Records
---
Amino acid sequence: MVQTASPLPSVDALLRAPETQVLLSRFGRTEVTRMLRDTLAQRRAAGLFGVPAAQIIDEAADGLARRLARSQRPVFNLTGTVLHTNLGRAPMPQEAAEAAAEAMRSATTLEFDLETGRRGERDDHVRDLLCELTGAEAATVVNNNAAAVMLVLNTLALGKEVPVSRGELIEIGGAFRVPDIISRSGAVLREVGTTNRTHPRDYQDAIGPATAALMRVHQANYAIVGFTAAVPTERLAAIAHAAGLKLIDDLGSGSLVELERWNLPHEPTPRESLQAGADVVTFSGDKLLGGPQAGLIVGHKTVIEAVNRNPFKRALRLDKGRLAALEVVLRLYRDPDRLTSRLPAMRLLTRSADDIQATAERVKDAVGAFAAGATVTVEPCRSQIGSGALPIDLLSSYALTATANNLEMLAKYFRNLPRPVIGRIAKGQLLLDCRCLEASDEQAFIAQLG
């Protein structure tokens, strides 16, 4: 006599099972019912019968967890790139994140003047801070630096030429290029000089009746070395002003402080640019500044007023959450002596190699146990700042290096952890740079490896 496999339980029976009640309370009847049906269908298609109802419910629970998990999740950034564009760039201070969350949860004074009881301006929350920290006459903000550049060009040079050095026509992440931004803004790019050498006469020869402004773009994510020449901001400003033109300076990463005080390489600041004669400066909020994604525009009052009158400004403005976070971060810069302890991005960039090595040694055994079969050691390495800031200046650091037969699979194991661990593969090893693994996260990091 041929014995047939036990039939699978019905969806209704599974929904009544005690083990299902916790799923119903967590995910709701609609989602649980759908997942139970999917699980049963997969088993029928594969010919997998005769299993306990509890096992089917467990499989459905796993499926629900996968289906309903948030797509954007926290990760451990052990890539060695501190301001990693793909991982969200600068980590914000806790108080800035809390301010953003509070603003998003309730009605706020986003565009309301408590003094007069009338409509206010959302820029009011950060304008004075930006002017104070950069020395600008006026300031405004939009949703990122590319938007800031596009808005300024659309305001000052719509349908007119803007000379830019060929050595400054950069491409940023995602194949996003400065010439494309200029074109989409409605301005006309006028390339001057050569890739490695641009002289004052190149700009002077390019100026004509169709010229609206001169533009300088900071070489934030690369460096040209060797037989080079570039026109200093002071000289470029003088050329522009002599012709009755404005000088636009796109700084990109936009540090607000002198980084040399922490033994980091120099990065031009908006204050320096304005003092050198630039009429308007654009820079990012989520790179070296260490705040939320934003495009900051500072400069002469007449220029900023014109920018604010541009209809595109409304399409590019910041939401109340990011404005709240940006205000908190900017206030931290009023106390630069404590910046490295209060601003996460600066704290990570200035972390000592000895401190990083100590972290790597403390978590080494847990990583070695997780990466069974791999050889794990602590080795010196070099971190980079990232997000187009100081591209050739590397920071001394330490990494856990794993050597294994299948590095891609090992890297995937780390990415599949509850809080994914993101490293990098280089020179036949998986490197987990510990610069961004702080003491406050060590226990959580070790616990999930278990």
Note: The mean pLDDT is 93.
---
Amino acid sequence: MTNHPYYSMRKGSNPAKDGLTLNDLKKLFKQAYNSMDKNGYFDESFYAYEECYGDRKPKIPDVESDILLKIRKESLWPINKFIENYSEDDLFDIIEFLHIHVSKPINAVWDGYLEINCCDEFDKAEGQKEFREKINEILGAYIGKFELSKNGEILEKPKIGFEKIFKADIPSNDEKVRQRINSAIRLYRRHGATVDDRRHAVKDLIDVCERLRSKVKSILTKKDEQDLFNIANNFGIRHYNEIQKTDYDVNLWMRWMFYFYLATIHFCLRKIEHTKS
């Protein structure tokens, strides 16, 4: 279902036309979390009401301690108590934590006295799917451009026009190539990725080009091939010496190089497969 742009959004006069604030995002997240919590989506991991479950124990008997151990932060749980003080990082940490532990109750029975759903069977995959759908609808309205991936990671959304390249299959049977490309994509898109993270992601893609170099020579002209590796070798990505060109907007340049190398790799791999066939 598409998000219909209402009048003030189309006109450009809506005060939140560029996206909702962090406080708005926290408010919407709190509502979504409380709804799923009330309907038993966190019972398997966090709760085990004796009236419902008898002797069954929750998977995480002490959520606060588990969060301290895994996220290494205090004052995040319970959510309703601390959410007003959450930073963006705190909120995204909690979203990723909940994605790990959410599961949909199957054949739940509502207990009017306790005002909870009692259930002894859960579907984790379906619960995670529904959780992602709710969270991504909320993140879609946020001023920051993020999404919750199937792996449960908050990632930066692709730039407009590049969405398909992240979903495209990698046409290679070389597992090292596939792993290096996927690793570079996750590192580049990860929430809070630093300039060094993105430089490393670009270097990973250049390493893939290097691995494919002997085959690339039959696809690109000699000059194009030289330019491909000239960028890699002389703009502070793979080497660090006095001849490196570093007088440029790093964030803008890293973004351009990441998409340039990723698109080039996809093009070359497809040409290689086409040549084989």
Note: The longest helix spans residues 250-276.
